[in-house]
Amino acid sequence: MDETQVHTPLPSIPKVIAQLLERGAVAVVVTVMADGGRVGLKLLVEETGDTLGSLGDPEWDSLVARQAAQFLASREETRTIKLSEFAPQVPSGDKVLLLFERIHPAPRLVVCGAGHVGAALARLGSFVGYHVTLIDDRAEFVKRERFPEEQIEPVFTGDWRDAVRHAIGNGRGVAVAVVTRGHNEDEECMRAVVERSPDYVGLIGSKRRTTIVIDRLREAGADEQQLLRIRAPIGLDIGAVTPEEVALAIIAEIVSERQGGKGGSLSAWRRS
Questions:
Q1: Which of 143, 198, 157, 207 has the alpha carbon at shortest distance from 175?
Q2: Are the C-beta atoms of 231 and 201 separated by less than 8 Å?
Q3: Which residues of 50-63 are buried (b: 16+ CB within 10 A; e: fewer)?
C-alpha cells in the first residue's frame, strides 16, 4: 500500500444527523440499551437504506436495518424492541434491548392567506409546535406586530407562487394549508404546492370551489397522484363554525396525517 495514501475518516453519527436534518431527510438511530459490552453502540439507518456505525455484529446490523424500515413506516417517534422480536434466530436475542429513534426535520406549516382563518391557524400551529410561515399579498395582514410569536414568520409577497415555493422548500416535514380569499389566489398557491409535493396539503372552501381549483390544475397538466393527495375541503369534520374552530379542524387533520392517526373518536368502541 502506498504509505502516502490518506484515508478519509468516516463522519460521526451526530454530524451525519445534522446533515440529514438540513436537507430534510428521515432516518432511524438504533442504540443498544441492554447487552453487556455492547451497550451504547449505535447504528444510523437512512430511509434510503444506507447505514453508518455498527452494533458490533454484521448480522445484527443487517437485521436491524430491515427492522428500521418497518419502524419508519409505522410513524412512531421512539420504541424499544428486543432483538428476539424480529430476529428469533439470534442466540440470547431476548436479552438484547434496542432503542429505535426517528430522526426527522422539525414540523413546519405554511399558511397561504392571513385572513381570519389563516391568522387563527398560524397562531394555533405555533402553539402546538410548528414553525409557521404565513403568506399574504396584503402587507397590512402580515405585519409583525400582529404576530409577535417567535415561531410565526409573516411574509408579504407580490408573487404567490414564488413565495410558496420558497417556503415549502423540498417539502419534507412540511404541511401546507391554502386558505386564501379567492379562486385566483388559491390556484396560484396550489400550482406551486403541487410542484413541491409537501407531506400534507389542504385547500379551504366548499366542494364546488375546491373542485374548480383542482380541475384547473388538472387542465394545466398537474400530476393526478398529486391532485389525489389534496385534502379539499380541508380539515376534519368537527362541525367547525368560527375561524378558531376551523383552524382547530385543520390542525387536527395535519397532526393526524403526520402521526398516522385515523381522525376518529377514541371512545367509538364503547358505542359499537
A1: 198
A2: yes
A3: ebbbebeeeebbeb
Domain that holds residue 51: 13-103
Pull the grid cell for residue 181.
380569499
Question: Per-residue pLDDT for 246 more than 80?
Answer: yes
Same domain (yes/no): 132, 248: yes
Number of domains within the chain: 2
**CB of 164 closer than 8 Å to CB of 111:** no
Q: Is 264 part of any domain?
A: no
7 belongs to a structural domain:
no
Report which of 80, 30, 78, 81 is spatially closest to residue 56, judged by C-alpha positions: 30
pLDDT tens for 17-66 read: 888 887 778 899 999 998 867 899 999 999 888 999 999 899 999 999 99
Q: pLDDT digits over 223-239, tens only? A: 899 899 999 999 999 99
Q: SS3 for 133?
A: strand
Looking at the structure, tell me whether residues 223 and 113 fall in a common domain.
yes
Look at residue 267 and tell me if it is in a domain: no
Q: Helix H segments across 111-206?
A: 116-127, 160-168, 183-196
Is 203 found in the same domain as 94? Answer: no
Distance separating alpha carbons of residues 86 and 67, to the nearest angstrom: 7
Q: Is the peptide bond before 233 cis (omega within 30 degrees of 0)?
A: yes
Does one domain contain both 248 and 141? Answer: yes
Residues 169 and 62 in one domain: no
Confidence of residue 10 (pLDDT cuts 50, 70, 90): low
Q: Give the model's confidence band at 264: pLDDT under 50 very low, under 70 low, under 90 confident, else very high.
A: confident
pLDDT exceeds cutoff 50 at 6: no
Q: Judge if 135 and 75 occupy the same domain.
A: no
Q: Would you say residue 197 has pLDDT above 90? A: no
Q: Is residue 271 part of a domain?
A: no
